[in-house]
Write a structure and sequence with these properties.
The complex is a heterodimer.
Chain A (H helix, E strand, L loop, with lengths): L1 H21 L13 H13 L2 H4 L14 E4 L2 E4 L16 H10 L14 H4 L4 H12 L22 H11 L9 H13 L3 H4 L17 E3 L2 E3 L12 H10 L10 H9 L6 H12 L7
Antiparallel strand pairs in A: 1-2, 3-4
Helix pairs in contact in A: 2-6, 4-6, 8-12, 10-12
Chain B lengths: L3 H34 L5 H31 L6 H21 L16 H4 L1 H24 L2 H6 L1 H15 L3
Helix pairs in contact in B: 2-3, 3-5, 5-7
The chains are: A mainly alpha, B mainly alpha.
């Protein structure tokens, strides 16, 4: 009798844990806007959000049709096709699908994306911004391109992300709220839309960004990722940070290269002057919160 | 006017007065032996000269880029004449890069950040140099038009062409 009860409690706990881990978060089925203004805002947000370099074609061509290999310590990821192609892309997505993907890292049918897709950064986006991004993506011409799968070690299953996400939630820092509106806008662009920390913040062995070292620089394979926190940029003027974001030019007239040159081209050079100035303001004062 | 330059000139005059003729004779003798005896530069010396020539190109690039960089940053006012002059020079310097890398210095002990890949994969290097010429020419054209926004915007692809090549062909 006691044995059965224990088993029942255990099964219930397992089921409860399973639901807790794997259930899809409740999201309202927000309708995607269709008006020209929303689509135009979406175009801006997709550029500011840095979607284009990673979702480029396998040949490196700029665009959204996917396939470009993204190397990481965990294997090679391939960003999917995010054009509205009915068979190989995201045709038919609505507000719910975009919110699930960008805020929660979840596929429409409930599966998990790998965090090579920066959904943990995008989680801070406003719902309005997510819906505008969706509106613009669906207004683009569909491209038929079946992207091959990721190349990962066999143990690395997307379902592990259920636990990884929970762990990352617990380890995530809650930065103090920004009171200055310009800094707040800069923080939104740096931390969320521009997802700078995805590369510039060092990660622990599980690949979770280290909350005590935001933007402190790291190594990505052989590539050195510069520190861009306030300590690293202490000798930079506001104009020098702004010029780097606009043109890729460093204070010594040298230019940034590698993937950062793409970020400058598709993302930060496309921003409004006000948004770029906000990013520069925030970066110049982005203090690492030591705990 | 007192100062070291004046003192030097006074000393020159003294030397001139006392030993001018002797110096001329000595000079004649020295050039004579130099022509007859100076050996042609060794391959090592030629490699060293090649490295210095290349580095001079890049130093001049930087020298000419710096004022435009200040204008791009907004810390110095835009001066269309200087922008055009310097951008034209940068385009001419860009055009010289590939030829200064014709001497293959891989085998020599020279102080250089140039990586062997430049000669291992010469076609790629030439393509990158060509890309630089294209963007430098575009910058010069934009500067010639006097259009401030277009001139400054042309720096981004030009800089990207610089760094793309540096990333693969220049040591840290």
């Amino acid at each position: 009798m006691g044995g059965r009860l224990t088993l029942a409690v255990l099964l219930l706990a397992l089921a409860g844990g399973g639901i807790w881990l794997f259930r899809l978060p409740a999201t309202a089925d927000a309708a995607l806007p269709r008006d020209a203004a929303a689509i135009e805002r979406g175009r801006y947000l997709v550029h500011a959000g840095g979607c284009i370099p990673c979702h480029a074609g396998a040949d490196g061509s700029a665009g959204l049709s996917g396939g470009r290999p993204i190397e990481s310590p965990f294997g090679t990821f391939r960003a999917p096709n995010i054009t509205p192609d009915p068979e190989t892309g995201i045709a038919g997505w609505g507000g719910r699908e975009f919110v699930l993907a960008l805020r929660h890292g979840r596929r429409p049918e409930g599966g998990f994306y790998f965090p090579a897709f920066p959904y943990r950064a995008y989680a801070g986006l406003t719902t309005a911004d997510i819906l505008d991004i969706g509106a613009w993506l669906l207004a683009q011409p569909p491209v038929r391109n079946a992207v091959p799968g990721h190349v990962l070690p066999p143990w690395l299953s997307p379902w592990l992300m259920a636990g990884w996400n929970r762990l990352a939630d617990r380890l995530q820092a809650t930065p103090p709220p920004e009171t200055d509106p310009v800094r707040a806008r800069g923080a939104y662009l740096v931390r969320h839309l521009g997802h700078c920390g995805e590369c510039h913040t060092p990660r622990n062995a599980l690949g979770i960004p280290r909350a005590d070292s935001e933007l402190a620089g790291t190594m990505l394979g052989e590539q050195k990722i510069e520190a861009i926190d306030a300590a690293a940029l202490a000798g930079w003027s506001h104009e020098e940070i702004e010029t780097l974001l606009r043109l890729g030019m460093k204070p010594d007239i040298d230019f940034v290269g590698g993937t950062m040159a793409e970020v400058i081209e598709h993302n930060t050079s496309q921003l409004t002057a006000a948004d770029r100035a906000a990013m520069a303001r925030f970066l110049g004062q982005a203090r690492t919160e030591r705990r | 006017m007192p100062g070291p330059f004046l003192n030097l000139r006074e000393r020159d005059d003294m030397i001139d007065a006392t030993s001018g003729r002797l110096a001329l004779l000595g000079l004649l003798a020295w050039t004579g032996t130099a022509v007859a005896q100076q050996p042609p530069p060794t391959p090592e010396q030629r490699a060293q000269t090649a490295v210095e020539t290349r580095q001079a190109i890049f130093k001049l690039m930087n020298h000419n880029m710096a004022p435009i960089g200040g204008m791009a940053r907004g810390t110095t006012p835009f001066d269309a004449a200087i922008a055009e002059r310097n951008a034209t020079r940068i385009a001419q310097l860009a055009d010289m890069i590939a030829e200064t890398f014709v001497p293959d210095t891989r085998a020599f002990k020279v102080e250089t950040r140039a990586l062997p890949k430049i000669w291992d994969n010469a076609d790629d290097f030439k393509a990158k140099a060509q890309d630089l010429i294209r963007h430098a020419t575009a910058l010069a054209a934009a500067a010639r038009s006097g259009d401030q926004a277009a001139t400054i915007a042309a720096l981004r692809p030009l800089g990207a062409a610089c760094s793309t090549c540096h990333d693969s062909n220049r040591a840290e």
